[in-house]
Amino acid sequence: MTYPVIRALPPEQRPRERMLKEGPAALSDIDLLAIMLRTGTAKTSAMELAAEMLQRFRDLRILSQASIEELSQIRGIGPVKAVQIKAALELGKRLAAMPAEERVTIRCPEDVVSLVMEDLRGLDREYFQALLLNTKNQVLVRETISIGTLNSSVVHPRELFKLAIRRSAAAVILVHNHPSGDPTPSREDILLSKRLIEAGQIIGIDVLDHLIIGDNKFASLKMKGLI
């Protein structure tokens, strides 16, 4: 199979541009290797060199075990490129060998409160945050969506779900503080929660709850039957 010269491709089909737009998961092994190689030779494109590497070593696992000398034997891959490839593959091996990070699992509102109470209580402005969860209700990350005033915060669904999609979250839990110390949900809190729940339903990301943090007190809109 003949692979084109990357610069001859339309911009939207070039590996680097596709990675910027679609993310690395959308690219093939050959695309990713071509990005590492950056350039080919006068007669061979970077994608053809990448394809030749995979053909010679059969798959990425065997390629990762190849020595710099073995990589350098491929026409068009000198010592510099061989070192770059070996370094990138070694980083991948080290990442795969790292122990899985301990993730907090959310089973009840109190689990959320234990994570956020000390950070949010006593703040003089409203901080609206989201816990992004995987399919096992484990916390992937906690993100601050907006910082408001003494008694309000402005949250747009776009900002919340852009982050959730980027992190491949399956669900979110909303959290914000009331600087007054009283966690009683306001009418605006309830309306905002319902709006975000509806937006999440459209794109397939569940909003599981909305917790309001006060001074060592909290309110769960779900437990109160408000959402």
Automatic annotation (TrEMBL):
<dbReference type="InterPro" id="IPR037518">
    <property type="entry name" value="MPN"/>
</dbReference>
<dbReference type="Pfam" id="PF04002">
    <property type="entry name" value="RadC"/>
</dbReference>
<keyword id="KW-0479">Metal-binding</keyword>
<dbReference type="InterPro" id="IPR046778">
    <property type="entry name" value="UPF0758_N"/>
</dbReference>
<dbReference type="GO" id="GO:0046872">
    <property type="term" value="F:metal ion binding"/>
</dbReference>
<dbReference type="InterPro" id="IPR020891">
    <property type="entry name" value="UPF0758_CS"/>
</dbReference>
<dbReference type="InterPro" id="IPR010994">
    <property type="entry name" value="RuvA_2-like"/>
</dbReference>
<keyword id="KW-0645">Protease</keyword>
<keyword id="KW-0482">Metalloprotease</keyword>
<dbReference type="Pfam" id="PF20582">
    <property type="entry name" value="UPF0758_N"/>
</dbReference>
<dbReference type="InterPro" id="IPR001405">
    <property type="entry name" value="UPF0758"/>
</dbReference>
<dbReference type="GO" id="GO:0008237">
    <property type="term" value="F:metallopeptidase activity"/>
</dbReference>
<keyword id="KW-0862">Zinc</keyword>
<comment type="similarity">
    <text>Belongs to the UPF0758 family.</text>
</comment>
<dbReference type="InterPro" id="IPR025657">
    <property type="entry name" value="RadC_JAB"/>
</dbReference>
<feature type="domain" description="MPN">
    <location>
        <begin position="105"/>
        <end position="227"/>
    </location>
</feature>
<keyword id="KW-0378">Hydrolase</keyword>
<protein>
    <submittedName>
        <fullName>DNA repair protein RadC</fullName>
    </submittedName>
</protein>
<dbReference type="GO" id="GO:0006508">
    <property type="term" value="P:proteolysis"/>
</dbReference>
